Amino acid sequence: MENFIERIRNAFRRTADRVTGQHVPVHVERAPLEDLENRRLSVPLVDIFDNDKEVMIIADTPGAFPDNTKLHWDDQTGLSLYVQRGDEPHEEWLWGERLAGDWYRAFSLPDYLDANEARAAVSSGVLTIQIPKRAMPAPVSIPVTVS
Amino acid sequence: MTTENTALAQRHAPSLDRAEETQVMNITPPVDIYENQDEILVAADFPGVPKDSLSVRLDRSELVIEGTQPAPEGQAQLRPVAFSRAFRVPNTIDPDGVSAELSQGVLRVHLAKSEAAKPKRIEVRSA
Which residue among A105, A115, B50, B77 is least crowded, i.e. fewest CB within 10 A of its CB? Predict the structure, then answer.
């Protein structure tokens, strides 16, 4: 029963998010990312927005889809995104500009962000990550007595 | 959802000049070009471009690819990005053999070579 309610809740959450195109969810995993030492890596451009309830990161990662996209986080390295693009299936290339490497970028995770509740989705090669903010105690106004 | 603060905007850099607010940001998309004996393939990065804003045109021997990535919702000061690039196409390409597909933000244009341009094996007869 609980599993059923959780699935409905997730479905509402997904449709309430940005509704341009088909957004396919990407799993966010709490684990350090594997060692990327010998891979050719490119840094995707991002926009980062925030409001009272969450921080949203939008990254241009053309070629990304759920099966080749990894989102990992841990307390040491923060949040990392990694898209393993693979080469075009064509033998001879005449001209190459599209950094034919994998996409990789990492972000620090300040205390007020709850990465456990982070959600991510990919659509048309654009990766959107939403990280909710933890409820912080409200600012307290301290009265000053003047004698 | 309202996004009050823009902490970083690399994809849709806001314009510094107020008068430019409604204009678009023109970007030349990076491309890879491949060739084999059947076709020339142009692969271009068009992330976040909806299919209805995409245009692929072959005008005589010029191939023009264009598309617009809309600015994120709720961000009035960020400009949409207009991708545009043009190429000279050799006359070995069959104009009826051009097709394009958009997948995961990558546009691939297939330019099929005309029969006359394909490598041919020539039979040698013994006299």
Answer: B77
Choose among B8, B30, B43: nearest Cβ to A88.
Answer: B43
In a domain, A114, yes or no: yes
Judge: B11–A58 Cβ closer than 8 Å, yes or no.
yes
Each residue's pLDDT tens digit, B62-100: 999 999 999 887 766 678 899 999 999 988 888 888 999
Dihedral in degrees, nearest 10, Cα atoms B13, B14, B15, B17: -150
Mark yes or no for CB contact B46/A64 under 8 Å. Answer: no
Residue B42 Cα, gap to closest chain A Cα (Å): 9
What total of structural domains would you count in chain A?
A: 1
State residue B63 phi and psi, 5-degree precision.
Answer: -100, 125
Please give, rounded to a whole number of angstroms, the shortest distance from the CA of B52 to a CA of chain A.
11
Which of the four CATH numbers 3.50.50.60, 3.30.70.1270, 2.60.40.790, 3.40.50.720 does domain B20-115 have? 2.60.40.790
A145 located within any domain: no
- The pTM for the full model equals 0.77
Task: Give buried/exposed letters for A32-49 (b at 16+ CB in 10 A, else e).
Answer: ebeeeeeeeeeebbbbbb
Calculate the dihedral angle through the C-alpha atoms of B84, B87, B93, B94, rounding to the nearest 10 degrees: 30
Taking the CA of residue A139 and the nearest CA in chain B, the distance in Å comes to 19
CATH number, position A80: 2.60.40.790
For residue B104, give the nearest of A45, A48, A62 by CB distance: A62
The rounded Cα B64 to chain-centroid distance in angstroms is: 8
CB contact under 8 A, A60 and B1: no
Domain of A37? 23-88+97-132
Chain A CB contacts of B106 below 8 Å: 62-63, 125
